Amino acid sequence: xxxxxxxxxxxxxxxxxxxxxxxxxxxxxxxxxxxxxxxxxxxxxxxxxxxxxxxxxxxxxxxxxxxxxxxxxxxxxxxxxxxxxxxxxxxxxxxxxxxxxxxxxxxxxxxxxxxxxxxxxxxxxxxxxxxxxxxxxxxxxxxxxxxxxxxxxxxxxxxxxxxxxxxxxxxxxxxxxxxxxxxxxxxxxxxxxxxxxxxxxxxxxxxxxxxxxxxxxxxxxxxxxxxxxxxxxxxxxxxxxxxxxxxxxxxxxxxxxxxxxxxxxxxxxxxxxxxxxxxxxxxxxxxxxxxxxx
Length: 294
What we know:
Low-confidence stretches: none
Structural class: mainly alpha
CATH topology: ABC transporter involved in vitamin B12 uptake, BtuC
């Protein structure tokens, strides 16, 4: 059976790949949007923190014998704590300055982190075992669905929607949003705004580390895995709208699917289609699809 001249199995296979890529785009762009929307920092270290999350999972397995499920819990916490130290020691000095200063500083940190890991482990991938409980797959008739890839899609979507709900629909989220608009007023109500900002940055980079753990069994653990992805993720954030939580989620998954289908119908454009869409969106709606004008 074919659809538009393309075998059904190939079409649904690319749809699955698109949803997998979209899961990582959504998680990473969500972390970027949380950090930018609440802290006003363009965090270029995000790709390196994604890579660090994968390496923490690898170290936990090699050194402590702790497998995938423990890594899902521990890696975001470890990377989140290192992110909070980074925020307290350097980034807090830049909040009142132009975005360019934060971008340049975090870009420098990204190069340092990536260079250290590359010097120690080279640029070839290190294998990371898939959890036994998620091995195998299901034959759906029109395609074969690997269990682990289905888990990544469902789990990423659940994390993204939970994050959106907490920020947009809870009292904690209202405090976070208020702290970005008028920190002095929020602090007058007895809320420790600097601590809230630090925890928010830690949470944002923790999302990147979580994505790294999810990616490790699929793409292997590689010092360059963040550098290969972060440019695309920034494009996703721009298309969705800087600081827009729901924009990051919808755009991340949507562009992953578009990229997957492009590989079927016009493979030559698959590596550039997201950037073409970004250029069009910036021309038509500079604030992004879900962004709001300042």
